[in-house]
Design a protein that fits this description.
The protein is an alpha/beta fold. It contains ten helices and eleven strands.
């Protein structure tokens, strides 16, 4: 029977730490970490994420600005806003909520953000730094996964680690972070042959494939740590992950639930990146 990794509890501990660091920064240096979030259009999920980011900033004492732009915003208007925020000393982190409306070029927007303020760690400069292990920021979801694994007390070094999913946002950086901790890492994807044979080798299994209940108990090694990054909605409206919790939980040693596992960590790690960006300005 697996122990549940409670993302809400781990996230709360990160935020308590950030509150203390914010108070210290303000007192010693008169610097309050500042985050600017840009949202274009009316995507319902994006609205929820942006509201949660705003609440997170308030909770830990950050300065925040939210720019809610209409669907009709042009590329030039969006880039101009990003450049203005690059030059604003009150703002240490800039985040443009994705996806953008189809007429806007996401890559151009990411490239326009100053890498030192790129708290999503999507800019190619930051992606390259993660690759070589010399980074300031980590992508928020993979960083949250690492924090959850750390909370178990299990040492990653020497473990067989399998990541299902190869996206630029989760799968690829997740593999690099596990590798930096001396895990032996395999990345699986839609073309992987004999997937179950690979996943059954995993001491640590991270699932980020975007298919509801995809990983079942027969695909998991006894005693594995299973981290479910998925967030899917069943036909009955209930949220579920990429892991079939009912069949996997009896086999795993640790497992994250959905909701309440990886989800709460993502915004907390965004706040952590913003703190790092603020502290970097003092160097």
């Amino acid at each position: 029977m697996a122990k549940i990794i409670n993302g809400k509890e781990v996230s709360a501990s990160v935020r308590e730490e950030l509150k203390r660091e914010t108070a210290e920064l303000v007192e010693k240096y008169g610097v309050r970490p500042g985050l600017a979030v840009i949202i274009v259009g009316d995507d319902p999920a994006s609205k929820v994420y942006v509201n949660n980011k705003e609440k997170g900033c308030a909770e830990v004492g950050y300065y925040s600005e939210v720019y809610r732009l209409p669907e009709t915003t042009t590329q030039q208007e969006l880039i101009s806003l990003v450049k203005r925020l690059n030059d604003d000393d009150k703002i240490h982190g800039i985040l443009c909520q994705l996806p953008l409306p189809k007429h806007l070029d996401e890559n151009a927007v990411i490239l326009a953000i100053n890498p030192e303020k790129d708290v999503d760690a999507f800019h190619p400069v930051n992606v390259g730094r993660i690759m070589i292990g010399d980074y300031s920021f980590l992508p928020c979801t993979p960083a949250g996964v690492m924090k959850l694994i750390e909370s178990t007390g299990v040492d990653i070094s020497g473990k067989e680690c399998v990541v299902i999913g190869r996206s630029n946002i989760v799968g690829k950086p997740q593999a690099m972070l596990l590798l930096h901790k001396n895990g032996t890492v395999t990345i699986c994807h839609s073309r992987t042959k004999n997937l179950s044979e690979v996943t059954r080798r995993a001491d640590i299994l991270v699932v980020a494939i975007g298919k509801a209940d995809f990983v079942t108990g027969d695909m998991v090694k006894d005693g594995a740590i299973v981290i479910d990054v998925g967030m899917n909605r069943r036909a009955d409206g209930k949220l579920t992950g990429d892991v079939d919790f009912a069949s996997v939980e009896p086999k795993a040693s640790y497992i994250t639930p959905v909701p309440g596992g990886v989800g709460p960590m993502t915004i907390s790690m965004l706040l952590r990146n913003t703190m790092t960006a603020a502290k970097n300005t003092l160097k």
